[in-house]
């Protein structure tokens, strides 16, 4: 039943949010290098010239070192801007300019490219609260990335970024949940069969 899954997801998200909130700073700091190395490896392996990424919040794995690497390596990086209507606009990263967007989330301050800019991406890196072994990703409950991925005809590889203990045996799945091709943790890259 969808409402049961929805309730299960809310409870699991609350647990994961608390786990992230109480994760010791030295553990988060130590994980940053592993996240960056693994994201660089994926971008290099896929030869992604245009990368869709996101600006992490204070409780998410830090994506800024990866974004800065991509820009320094001459790659184009698209960052999401949340809209009231549930869609995502995109802007090019410059590695410096950020503003506070909808829901207090960090966003790029550059010119808006519109929702279809994501179609230029060769690789999509998205946030997640958890991922399971089937590639089911659970976000934070607003559905922005599920809508975006679900609307793409030719979706490039999609990787969710999570801590090692957020790879779960099972994540409650609803019809609208878009699966991911893989997950990046500080210690490994996991690819899912699709």
From TrEMBL:
EC top class, as a word: ligase
What is its cofactor?
Mg(2+)
BP term (GO), one: tetrahydrofolate interconversion
Q: Which UniProt keywords apply?
A: ATP-binding, Ligase, Magnesium, Metal-binding, Nucleotide-binding
Which residues bind substrate per the record? 55, 60
- What molecular functions are annotated in GO for this chain? 5-formyltetrahydrofolate cyclo-ligase activity; ATP binding; metal ion binding
Superkingdom assignment = Bacteria
- Tell me which Pfam families the record gives: 5-FTHF_cyc-lig
Catalytic reactions on record: (6S)-5-formyl-5,6,7,8-tetrahydrofolate + ATP = (6R)-5,10-methenyltetrahydrofolate + ADP + phosphate
Residues at which ATP binds: 9-13
The enzyme's E.C. designation? 6.3.3.2
Which family does the UniProt entry place this protein in?
A: Belongs to the 5-formyltetrahydrofolate cyclo-ligase family.
Q: What is this protein called?
A: 5-formyltetrahydrofolate cyclo-ligase
């Amino acid at each position: 039943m969808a409402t049961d899954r929805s309730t299960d997801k809310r409870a699991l998200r609350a647990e994961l949010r608390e786990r992230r909130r109480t994760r010791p700073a030295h553990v988060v700091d130590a994980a940053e290098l592993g996240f960056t190395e693994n994201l660089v490896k994926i971008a290099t392996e896929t030869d992604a010239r245009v990368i869709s990424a996101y600006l992490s919040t204070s409780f998410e794995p830090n994506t800024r070192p990866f974004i800065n690497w991509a820009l320094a390596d001459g790659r184009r990086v698209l960052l999401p801007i949340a809209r009231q209507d549930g869609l995502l606009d995109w802007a090019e990263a410059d590695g410096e300019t950020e503003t506070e967007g909808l829901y207090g989330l960090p966003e790029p301050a550059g010119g808006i490219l519109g929702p279809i800019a994501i179609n230029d991406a060769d690789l999509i890196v998205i946030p997640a609260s958890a991922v399971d072994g089937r590639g089911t990703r659970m976000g934070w409950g607003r559905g922005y990335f599920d809508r975006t991925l679900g609307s793409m005809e030719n979706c490039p590889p999609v990787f969710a970024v999570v801590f090692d203990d957020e790879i779960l045996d099972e994540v409650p799945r609803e019809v609208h949940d878009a699966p991911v091709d893989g997950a990046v943790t500080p210690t490994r890259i996991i690819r899912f069969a699709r």
